[in-house]
Amino acid sequence: MRFIYCPLCGEKLSYRQLGDEVNVPWCDRCNRPFFDMFSSCVIVLVVNGEGKVALLKAADRVRAYRTLVSGYIQPGESAEECARREVQEEIGVVLHELRLIQTVWFPRGEQLMIAFIGYTKDQELRLSCEVEEAAWYEPEEAIHLVHPKGPGNASNLLVETWLKECQQKY
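-> structure tokens emitted (170 positions)
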């Protein structure tokens, strides 16, 4: 989101160069910058002790593809805390290990997705009202159920990463 008016005083913003940054929205009245903002989110590929991955169907959206656990980072929360919280809220499992894979810019939602693989010993999925259905899938099957590769597609990236790791082990 790019500010046009100062969110503090309502003054129309001008633009300034600040260090290496050009065209930074600036409030002359408050004498401060207002950098562009975007949401930070987590996305987690949850893997159980058998190497299967949890795929979900969201209750509030009609989608042709399955999704992974994801959610917005709350103020004061780390990405890791958010990932653990979202996994427990959405599918009712506790992660015993969490590994950062990479960050992915999701252009359609203007969001920074922080992508993790999370490991659980739990087998039973307990779904929240946000999730219509969820199940454990073999990674070879899961890669065909998530959205195909494309800009900002963290689901495919995570399943593909796990699939490659499984193939290297065996």
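The radius of gyration is 19 Å.
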